[in-house]
């Protein structure tokens, strides 16, 4: 693992939001909620005490994932769903950097669901922003893992039959140490929430309710418009009874059945209300709050649901490395052949030269890919004995199947 290059930058130069803006043309549709999130993030950056040179935005694929282009920092528009994995690697190698992950509900909860869970449970020191518009925006309006039951889209012409994910419940279930929600209609709330997530040591996860005005327009408006917020958003404050509505007339209690529910404060009295404790070590109450709302017609908590401290991944890995080196001395890879298996079952072999540099080909192959490729090749040969398909076409097809899971790096 690379040594720490420098400590966290506490002497960051004074900057303005304009310094964080790039010369790239913003390609989102006019009116998209992503613009207000971008503005909030650019406004927030000067207050974080970080420098552009030490800041990295990493994304996968989707409209939300175009975010790194628009921030004047380092960045990576990665592969679909893999931003948490890429960010994990970077956070391990460069703990001095300020690392952000940005993705949509499809990117981080469909193809990237696995990677998100592991980054959260490992408590990797990154700030993760999930732009939830309950739709695949970039690919023009297919349903996503957060789309509501019955949602009619191009990919669900008769309505979705999938129970939607509640992103906060998913995060809490994965053991996330910081979990919050905000929305694109309230810049100050976004800035305040994102700052808390950034300042958290470990994985800071924020769901941002975001309007896709082209493929899912108004999906959140029952909650987020100015006239609806007071009665529909429950703005959580640490240490305070959970109250909302005009004059705080509504509140949340946890009943003897263990369920959280919305009540009239006049009916139960203020003392019966749940007092919000975001720092509570066990996640049960945060989960109850996350589960309070299952649809956009139900009062929905926003703000910080959970903020607890736990060992951060890269720090724990460094400590483990130091202990191992103390016990066995520094490792020596010179002249060694190292074989390992990655989590997908690829075997990886690396030969190191006498100076300790990786010198021979790293070969990573999946038995599965080759077997599937062989079967397809066999079937094609069988079929082509009756058709005009050339051997060259057959070989190309086999190569592409096998190479999907086999690669070599010099
Ligand atoms: C491996 C792979 N599978 C599928 C796609 C197609 N694809 C591109 S973006 C996307 C989903 C985008 O939805 P979301 O993450 O919610 O982002 P949004 O566009 O809504 O911001 C999909 C399925 C792809 N680019 N790569
Ligand atoms: S398709 Fe939707 S999410 Fe994507 S840029 Fe347009 S409005 Fe925004
Ligand atoms: Mg989306």
Rg, rounded, reads 25 Å
CATH topology of the largest domain: Rossmann fold
Instruction: Identify the bound ligands.
Output: thiamine diphosphate, iron/sulfur cluster, magnesium ion
Mean pLDDT: 89
Provide the CATH architecture of the largest domain.
3-Layer(aba) Sandwich
Dominant shape: globular
| Order of adjacent strands in the largest pleated sheet | 2-1-3-4-6-5-11-7
Q: Which regions have little confidence, pLDDT < 50, spanning 5+ residues?
A: 1-8, 401-410
> What is the count of β-strands?
15
Number of continuous helical runs: 13
Strand content: 15-25%
Largest sheet: 8 strands, mixed
Q: What string gives the helices and strands in order? A: HEEHEHHEHEHEHHEEEEHHEHEEEHHE
Q: Ends: how far apart?
A: 20 Å
Count of spatially separate domains: 2
Structural class: alpha/beta
What is the CATH domain class of the largest domain?
Answer: Alpha Beta
């Amino acid at each position: 693992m690379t040594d720490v290059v420098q400590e966290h930058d506490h002497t960051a130069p004074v900057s303005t939001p304009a310094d964080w803006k790039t010369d790239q043309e913003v390609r989102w549709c006019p009116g998209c909620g992503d613009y207000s999130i971008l503005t909030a993030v650019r406004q927030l950056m000067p207050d974080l005490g970080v420098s552009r040179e030490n800041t990295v935005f990493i994304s996968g694929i989707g409209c939300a994932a175009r975010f790194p282009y628009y921030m004047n920092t380092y960045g990576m528009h990665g592969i679909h769903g893999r931003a948490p994995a890429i960010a994990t690697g970077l956070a391990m190698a460069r703990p001095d950097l300020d690392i952000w992950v940005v993705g949509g509900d499809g990117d981080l909860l469909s193809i990237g669901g696995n990677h998100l869970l592991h980054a959260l449970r490992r408590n990797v020191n990154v700030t993760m922003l999930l732009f939830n518009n309950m739709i695949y925006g970039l690919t023009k309006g297919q349903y996503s893992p957060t789309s509501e039951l019955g949602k009619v889209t191009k990919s669900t012409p008769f309505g979705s039959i999938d129970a939607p994910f509640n992103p906060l419940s998913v995060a809490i279930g994965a053991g996330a140490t910081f979990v919050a929600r905000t929305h694109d209609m309230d810049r100050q709330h976004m800035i305040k929430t994102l700052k808390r997530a950034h300042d958290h040591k470990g994985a800071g996860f924020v769901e941002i309710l975001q309007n896709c005005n082209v493929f899912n327009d108004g999906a959140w408006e029952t909650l987020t418009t100015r006239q609806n917020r007071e009665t529909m958003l429950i703005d959580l404050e640490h240490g305070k009874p959970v109250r909302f509505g005009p004059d705080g007339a509504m509140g949340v209690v946890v009943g003897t059945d263990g369920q959280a529910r919305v009540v009239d404060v006049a009916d139960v009295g203020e003392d019966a209300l749940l007092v919000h404790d975001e720092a509570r070590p066990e996640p049960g109450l945060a989960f109850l709050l996350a589960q309070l709302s299952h649809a956009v017609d139900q009062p929905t908590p926003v703000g910080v649901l959970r903020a607890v401290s736990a060992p951060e991944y890269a720090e724990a890995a460094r400590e483990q490395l130091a202990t191992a080196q103390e016990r066995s001395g520094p490792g020596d890879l010179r002249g060694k052949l190292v074989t390992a298996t990655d989590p997908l079952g690829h075997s990886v072999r690396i030969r190191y030269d006498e100076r300790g540099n990786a010198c021979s080909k790293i070969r990573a192959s999946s038995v599965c890919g080759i077997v599937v490729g062989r079967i397809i090749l066999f079937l094609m040969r069988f079929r082509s004995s009756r058709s005009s398909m050339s051997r060259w076409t057959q070989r190309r097809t086999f190569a592409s199947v096998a190479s999907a899971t086999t690669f070599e790096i010099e």
